[in-house]
Amino acid sequence: MNDLVNWSHYLLALMVLLGLLGAMGFFAYAVQRGWILQGVTGLRALTATTRRLSISETMSVDPRRRIVIVRCDNREHILLLGAERETILASHDVPAQSPLANRETET
Fold it and tell me: Membrane-spanning residues where (predicted)?
């Protein structure tokens, strides 16, 4: 009789453990999908559907400095990034390209 009580405790503990793991998994999924963030704060999901900012290219000048081409909306900026300051070397407008046009030029 004592063995039956011990097995029932083990099975009950296992069921509680699996239930807690399942609840943690569902909570992580809900956070990833943005359900928790939107319900609590009214904000949208963590990942933006359209990104306005992208880094087109980078090049190291020396160990402390780097040149970066940053694109924001339809404007490109060439930046010199250093350990102590950043300098805008050039800025110019770029015609908008569709994502399909970018894929055709890459292949």
Answer: 12-31
